[in-house]
Amino acid sequence: MCGIAGIVDFERPAEASRSAIAAMQRALARRGPDGQGDFFEGAVALGHTRLAIQDSESGAQPLLSPDGRHVLVYNGELANADELRRTYAREFPFNGKSDTEVVLAALTLDGVGALRRFSGMFALFLWDREQQRGVAARDTLGVKPLLYTREGSQLRFASEAKALIAARGTSPAVNMDALVEWALVPQFSGVDRAPFAGVEILPPGGLLEVDRSGVRVSRWSRFRPASKPMDEAALLDDVLRRLYMGTNSVAASDWPTGVFLSGGLDSSLIAEASGFSLDELRAYTIRFEGQDRFDYAHSAITFEDDTPFAEQVAKELELEHTFVDVRREALPSDLETLAKINDLVPAWEQELAQHHLSRVASQSVKVVLVGDAADETHFGYHFLLDPSATKSIDGLLARLGAPARLQMLNPELRASALETLASRYRDVVADAGQRWGTRDQDVLATTALIVERWLPRLLHNGDVHTMAFGLEARVPFCSANLLDLAERVTPAIGLKNGIEKWHLRQGAEGDLPKEILWRRKSALPKDQGAEPVYRAEAERLLADPDPLVKRLLDVAFLRELARAPRKLLEVERSMLFQAIVLTHWARHHGVR
Is the domain of 38 the same as that of 106? Predict the structure, then answer.
């Protein structure tokens, strides 16, 4: 796992970009603490920072093809690298066991069509020195990030927005449309537009081509829910095999490996399945002060305390288990740190849990398995069973709290803000080939939007918080064989008997205790006891609000909310969280 960066400019020599590449590498240093490399020639300048997981001796980048024609920078992990290495061994002289060589072999021999043969997560850029042409691509679900800017004759790309900002060397301007979306629907933000003006995001499954004629962006792949329906009996017969295959191929590592264990279905299945490929697996579970006494009855997607279930799974599987305890007195500092790490602006309170899990796990392991993408691709969210939340985009936005958040938006920005976003999301659903109508159509339309917007944001957060500690997060549910299976699941099977992910539960019957296997989906917890800290921090920061905060948010409303003589609703607490992290984000990046 690594950080990649590059500049393509047909009007300036590559050497003129040396200082900019160095600045980008410094900004990406945490993504690759084990080494760095660069390449300068003609129109292209490339930079790389390396987190060495496999083949630490011969996996350095940028990597040139044996004939010297192509040069590659790559961030990711191919689960089927060994299989592809055997496929290309006759035509490509491999020097080591790095999957970077496999990616280079496939692309140089089969072109961009080889992307469909990759099972795993990746963001990459391949430069053809002979044709003076470059190609960038991301994996189907967008596990690995890639952002870019087009300024004058230059195309710049990087793994994180902060590297692009560093290359500019000036205070960045903001994209107010992106920040309005972040304020109202943070769960969908930072996916197709970055909060920095001029910074663009290559979409999941995206392909970018650049040559002297310009830049072209398209999508080479897209996950399409229920696009290949499969008979229920055949599906149930195949699901466990594919889950184990996917987990085993992803879990294989030369380094100590961990799992973020919630005691829910997804992380428990991954932990159980990885036992076939790992001699040792270390489990990490978040624990907030007083978590057993939280008010789960009024929580949107977190319905019970995870800790006893995680403890049960760890004992059942004989895992080395660590509870990651979060100190509330450190929360003000933690909120500032989140805003520095997540350059797309922190979106939800659960990022605190991701941050602390990553920090502690990185002290003992270099690779961690996560259950991300299971809910989004296998009908895992309980609100899919609620007709009022799925019958229209308005119903879903209401479920996500967008109308309530409208109160905290600057009155000057409120007019038509929700309507504009709703229209944009309808276009996303239509572009994905779905529409609202029958009950099944409602579920598929909602799922398409969750896959296109919620999931990329979730995966971004997972990537940015783990990589901040030089920790590689692997996502078994994003493996190609599991995604192929997920496209075969219909709402009737995925939500059978009013149970989310019914097919996964039924297919794994007997492999986990029933109370774990059939446990209702409950999201990563947030600290309900953080309210007094949020109130105090919001009052402090809003006493002299940052200019961006004043421009975007209704400061008077937020001040009143911080002083309200009652317990705050969950969405109200999240508004104070947003006001705090936005202030820190704006100040850290010095935004204009």
Answer: yes
Question: CB atoms < 10 A from the CB of 86, how many?
Answer: 10
Query: How many Cα neighbours within 13 Å face the side chain of 504?
Result: 32
SS3 36: strand
Locate tokens 């008077």: which residue? 556
Residues 124 and 264 in one domain: no
Q: How far is CA 284 from CA 264, 306, 473, 525, in A?
A: 13, 12, 13, 14
Claim to verify: residue 474 and residue 509 sit in the same structural domain: yes
Average pLDDT, the chain: 94
Dist. CA 231–CA 571, nearest whole Å: 41
Supply angle C-alpha 537, 342, 4, rounded to 5.
160
Burial (Cβ within 10 Å: 0-12, 13-18, ≥19) of residue 130:
exposed
Cα Rg for the chain, rounded, in angstroms? Answer: 23
- Does this model's pTM top 0.90? My answer is yes
Would you state the pLDDT for residue 366? 92
Rounded to whole angstroms, how far apart are CA atoms 547 and 562? 19
Going from the C-alpha of 532 to that of each of 73, 314, 567, the distances in angstroms are 46, 33, 10
Phi then psi for residue 354, to 5 deg, are -60, -40
Residue 108's CATH number = 3.60.20.10
Peptide bond before residue 62 is cis, with ω within 30 degrees of 0: yes
C-beta of residue 525 within 8 angstroms of C-beta of residue 306: yes
What pLDDT shows up at residue 577? 98
pLDDT surpasses 60 at 55: no
Tell me, yes or no, whether 236 and 213 share the same domain: no
Task: Return d(Cα 158, Cα 155) in angstroms, integer.
Answer: 10
Domain of 385, in residue numbers = 232-275+306-316+351-523
Domain identity same for 189 and 261: no
Position 558 in a domain: no
Tokens of 576: 């104070």
How far, in Å, CA of 303 to CA of 290, rounded?
A: 15
CA-CA-CA-CA torsion sign (418, 423, 427, 432): positive
CA–CA dist 299, 526 (Å, integer):
10
Q: Which one, of 313, 333, 134, 322, lies nearest residue 215 by Cα?
A: 134
Is 555 domain-assigned? Answer: no
Give the pLDDT band (50/70/90) at residue 246.
Answer: confident
What order do you get walking across the sheet with 282-288 strand by strand? 320-326, 282-288, 257-260, 367-369, 472-474
Quick check: 53 pLDDT over 70?
A: no
Domain total in the chain: 2
Q: Are residues 167 and 239 in the same domain?
A: no
The neighbour count for residue 364, using CB atoms within 10 Å, is: 13
Let me know if residue 585 belongs to a domain.
no
Kindly list the distances between the CA atom of residue 367 and the CA atoms of 141, 256, 259, 314, 437, in Å, as whole numbers in the listed order.
20, 7, 8, 18, 43
Give the pLDDT of residue 233. 94
Token pair for residue 449? 């939007």
Residue 435 domain-assigned (yes or no): yes
What whole-number distance in Å separates Cα of residue 135 and Cα of residue 115? 11
Reported as a single tens digit per residue, the pLDDT across 282-335 is: 999 999 999 999 988 888 788 889 999 999 999 999 999 999 999 999 999 999
Statement to judge: residues 186 and 38 lie in one domain: yes
Alpha-carbon dihedral sign for residues 111, 117, 484, 452 = negative
Paired residues of 276 in beta bridges: none
